[in-house]
Amino acid sequence: MAEFEPMVGRYLTLTVEGRDHRIYFEEAGSGIPLVCLHTAGAHASQFRHILCDPTVTDYFRVLAFDLPWHGKSNPPVGWQNEDYQLTSEFYAATVMGFVNALELERPVIMGCSMGGRMVIRLAVEQGPHLTAVIGLESTDRPTPWYDDNWTDHPEFKNGDFCAALVSGLCAASSPNEFRWETLWHYYQGGTGVFKGDMYFFRTDSDYESLSSRIDSEPCPVYLMTGEYDFSCRPEDTIRTANRIPGAEAIIMKGLGHFPMSENPEAFREYLLPILDQIKVGR
Amino acid sequence: MFDTLAHSVNNDTFLVRLGCRMTAAFLVQVGTREFFVTVDRGRISAIDEGQFRMRGWSFAVRATEEVWRTFWLACPPPGYHDIFAMSRFGHCRLEGDLSVLLSNLRYVKEVLAIPRRKADTGGGDG
After folding, report:
1. Which of A138, B51, B75, B103 is 20 to 30 Å from A229 at the Cα level?
2. Hey, what CATH class is A8-281 in?
3. Is residue B37 in a domain?
4. From the CA of A145, how many Å to the nearest CA of chain B?
């Protein structure tokens, strides 16, 4: 008899900005909804270890969806004649569309990298409707580490290049198996999708002037960054946390830009105490 | 490191296949020493030590000997574990036609990291 993993995958259609988007998501557990947002150019499999962790799923209903164009979520009808470009408006509307479609009550939103950027915007706009936000490798403003013109290089559309570009964002100490699985997500990316996400991440997500408005009383803000991350450096996260009254910054030893997928065992040691705080606070 | 680099690369059939689209030369500077690495379809055909006055290269990676020694540790510390991390923190300089680097990125990164294989088995020579 096969040993099944506990998560189940389903599809739903969300209408965002007037267009239908067929969305794939996985979920496991019950309790406080915990919505996970993947990094640029990747997909929700990054959160598979959390979906399989009973210490989490005994208290949280963990949901991880693929953004349109990513993973098993389709691009919209007509995609073949357009360049994908993720905007802040579309991203925020998609996340809240997912939350509303599943009637999730005061969810926790946990996002990594560009997902970690998005949770800042959501905390500003939706704070009272959220239980907490967790920004992994998160800053409130772009912190680019390579030249803008690289995104115009033809290689930027190739998964092989995208994986090599981000390979150093993994910690040197992360297990090989999981580091390469993390990079596989980038090999899998659709042509031009990573580049399209970079529009949001590098151009359309400067929330530095807004983040101080976050009220972390109803919506605690946890910012967790790996010490090996040179895209969102620890000092970038600490600066962001300093702009948000009550925000907590946690710098994670031995982890990089993809903590949940590159070293799941090490990451859960940092995550579980935060989830415990959230449980108590709610 | 440069004594054995060509041998290590050329005897790694997977790595040679990874670099099969690359025919170019690049420069690695280690402190005051310059090494001119010539790649022919993924095989390293020559590594020449300079200084060179009139020899062109596509791109260059320049760092101090201490930085490279740290980069080549089996498990380098944060900021020294990747050429882009080193560039971001000012530990190394990337110069020249970076499009050649970008077009062969995984290959070049793996070539530059080869000394870590020795370090991993306790025989690191920096």
Report:
1. B103
2. alpha beta
3. yes
4. 6
